[in-house]
Design a protein that fits this description.
- The chain is α/β, with parallel strands linked by helices and about 240 residues long.
- It has one domain: Spore Coat Polysaccharide Biosynthesis Protein SpsA, Chain A, CATH 3.90.550.
- The protein has helices spanning about 15-25, 45-55, 70-80, 100-110, 130-145, 165-170, 180-190, 210-240; strands at about 5-10, 30-40, 60-65, 85-90, 115, 125, 160, 195, 200.
- The protein has a seven-stranded mixed sheet, with helices on both faces.
- Helix 1 links the parallel strand 1 (about 5-10) and strand 2 (about 30-40).
- The chain is globular, with a radius of gyration of 17 Å.
Length: about 240
């Protein structure tokens, strides 16, 4: 199975070169391509990637020609991915590459979605806003325990998907909530989901475009949808 690592990058000139070198030099032991999506950058991100392409033949650069934003950058990456598996990785060096092998092993065992979880045993979140940590931890754990969603960390973008899952999900998200929408909808479509522990680290360079108060209503909407979907499914099962 070939893996497409999709990296949405908005003005990541301080991180992107190091990230590419880390991924290429890590020794994943997996056949993979690296797709960098330049998301309406006004810095040297695209230029730096173009230079790296001369060194790495499995590296590609695509431009997000849709409206700027994380969800559309991922859509662009998904539509340009050649692999059987797709893994979004953030462009700020926050995701743990060691986790990729664990995800691949779970996919090889028959799972359709493997979630990198900061909030299960062995996982960790290092740095970042305490408010964002509280909200994502509370949301993920409550959906796990109340609705039996098979991950403690629904909001983390660091998840490996079979390509067929991406194609099956009707993506409606406009922003970062796409990382919650994809696994939730996959779960209710009946796909097999699991999680592995991962360590997330706050960015050291560059500026995050994640705005919690602007995005919170979108996350709450998805949270409410999941509860409604579970209640509806239970009611239908009772009728049967």
């Amino acid at each position: 199975m070939k893996l497409s690592i999709v990296i949405p990058a908005h003005n990541e000139e301080e991180n992107i070169s190091n990230l590419i070198d880390q991924i290429q030099g890590y020794g994943l032991g997996i056949d993979f391509e690296l797709v960098i999506v330049a998301d309406h950058c006004s810095d040297r991100t695209a230029e730096i990637v173009s230079q790296k392409i001369k060194k790495f033949n499995n590296l590609r650069l695509v431009e997000n020609k849709l409206e700027a934003g994380f969800a559309n950058a991922l859509r662009t990456g998904f539509s340009n991915a050649y692999g059987d598996l797709i893994l979004p990785i953030m462009g700020d060096l926050c995701d743990e590459l060691e986790t990729v092998k664990k995800m691949y092993e779970k996919i090889s065992q028959g799972y359709d979605v493997v979630c990198g979880s900061r909030y299960m045993k062995g996982g960790k979140r290092q740095g970042g806003s305490s408010l964002k940590s509280f909200l994502s931890r509370t949301g993920g754990r409550s959906l796990h325990f109340i609705l039996s969603v098979p991950t403690h960390d629904i909001a983390n973008s660091f998840k490996m998907y079979r390509k067929e899952v991406i194609k099956a999900v009707n993506i409606e998200a406009r922003g970062f909530e796409i990382s919650m929408e994809l696994p939730l909808k996959a779960y209710y479509l009946g796909y097999k989901i699991t999680e592995v522990p991962t360590v997330w680290r706050e960015r050291e360079k560059g500026k995050s475009s994640f705005k919690i108060f602007k995005l919170l209503p979108n996350y709450l909407k998805l949270y409410g949808w999941a509860i409604y979907k579970s209640l509806t499914n239970r009611r239908d099962n009772v009728k049967k």
